[in-house]
Design a protein that fits this description.
The protein is an alpha/beta fold. It has helices at 29-37, 56-66, 107-110, 136-149; strands spanning 6-11, 14-16, 50-52, 68-74, 84-93, 96-98, 112-119, 153-157, 162-164. Strands 1-4-8-9 form a 4-stranded mixed beta sheet. Strands 6-5-7 form a 3-stranded antiparallel beta sheet. Strands 2-3 form a two-stranded antiparallel ribbon.
């Protein structure tokens, strides 16, 4: 059997389980809100997941390695309450700004994210089933991610139902 295309699946923000580098981890009330609203707790252990902001270089790297043909972005509705949304567009590492993932795994411990702050939409998207129904700022956020990662978004999830770009 031959694969016809690879669909990458990502949340509209980033989570991590366990230790290790997580440059965009939100260690404040915003991270707690993402965890609570997104129900980010282990299904088996109940342990809280680490939550943070979307990391463009991380997803760009993941896409390159896996050959994504398109992306499915889930949990967009978790961001509905935010006035502004930081998006990591690079890292500051050793005094230099880089836009790609550091080559060495240990560099992740020493890198500081470089954020571009986008306006939030501050309105509900949960349950919307058509891309055109999304608030303009939510579409702007998705289009920014799509352009920054370089992979078309084929599906956006806003809760239990999916919104498809037609």
């Amino acid at each position: 059997m031959r694969l016809g295309g690879v669909i990458g699946v990502t949340k509209a923000y980033v989570t991590r389980v366990g230790g290790g580098p997580f440059p965009t981890e939100a260690l404040d009330a915003a991270g707690e809100d993402l965890r609570r609203i997104g129900n980010e707790f282990g299904a088996v252990t109940g342990r809280p997941r680490r939550c943070g902001w979307f990391d463009v270089p991380l997803l760009r790297y993941t896409s390159m390695i896996n050959g994504f043909a398109s992306l499915a972005v889930t949990k967009l509705d978790v961001l509905d309450h935010l006035e502004t949304i930081p998006v990591c567009v690079g890292y500051r590492l050793g005094g230099q700004e880089v836009s790609e993932m550091p080559a060495r795994r240990t560099a992740g411990w020493r890198s500081n994210p470089v954020y571009q702050t986008l306006p939030g939409w501050h309105s509900l998207t949960a349950g919307m089933t058509r891309y055109e129904e999304l608030p303009q700022r939510a579409r702007d956020y998705l289009e920014f991610l799509e352009a920054s990662v370089g992979v078309e978004m084929g599906c956006i999830s806003t809760g239990p139902n999916a919104t498809r770009r037609l």
